[in-house]
Write a structure and sequence with these properties.
It is a single chain. With 271 residues, the protein is of the alpha/beta class. It folds into 2 domains: 2-106 and 185-270, Rossmann fold, CATH 3.40.50.1000; 114-182, Hypothetical Protein Ta0175, Chain: A, domain 2 (Alpha-Beta Complex), CATH 3.90.1070. It has 9 helices and 14 strands. The protein has helices at 42-52, 65-68, 99-112, 116-126, 156-165, 187-198, 213-218, 228-234, 252-270; strands at 2-5, 26-32, 35-41, 56-59, 82-85, 90-93, 96-97, 132-138, 142-147, 169-174, 177-182, 203-206, 221-224, 242-244. The strands form 4 sheets. The protein has a 5-stranded parallel sheet, with helices on both faces. A 4-stranded antiparallel sheet has the order 8-9-11-10. Helix 7 links the parallel strand 12 (203-206) and strand 13.
Amino acid sequence: MIFACDLDQTLIYSRRSMGPVGESELVPVEKYEGEDLSFMTRAAYSRLRELSLELDFVPTTTRIYEQYERIHGLTDGIRVRYAIVSNGGRVLVDGRTDAGWDGMIREAVRLTAAPGEEAKALFDRLADPRWVLKERYCDGLFYAVVVDRDGVPDGWMEELTGELAGLGWNCSLQGRKMYLVPDPVSKGAAVRYVKELAGASFVFAAGDSLLDESMLRIADAAMAPAHGELFRMYGGENGGSIGFARRSGIGASEEILDAAAKCRREARHTG
């Protein structure tokens, strides 16, 4: 069994996103320039350590490799053989880039999506530079743009989505970060590839954003926390195959891990 899980605001949380929680309940899992940036609850961390020994836990993130490597908590007593970074653009096996996937995904982007410069030029034409704060081209595959969210007009994302579709690209807004992504680059496609690599027959997936939806839709069972883009879109219901946690914030990770453990027990019983 594979447990493919988004990281930020699904499994790990910054102080700004975690919600009310006692300091004594927190375990730091990411450090940058001497500062603890991300946390899990002690209960969630303990459950993940146990669970990682029973199945293939696959961290699945939009972070690029260098940002993923900062999460030291995923190397301390937690077994990770496979990981997915760059929103599905790179698959790691035992910490190294899988060359087979790398070649396939870059060829797919070349054949089916417009060059990155075209997508970015379209964005620049539609965006107001007054609310664009920072931008980065990630892994030569997609763009991450930091924006002043209050400045983004209502309906603007819908306009951008429609324009990008003609180029074979899509977009997502998560907090202050806007992502422009070519269609072949998705977490769902990468999870399907890892499933084949691992020889797994069952996938449980969890995530909070529209960039996670592709992997939640191809999973055998899936859960989203009671916050984030997916919760806002579906209102905690009518998500089809996606179940929703009762809790929001950092507490939702405990529910997600409990659901993954339940799937593992049921798979073991039926197997």
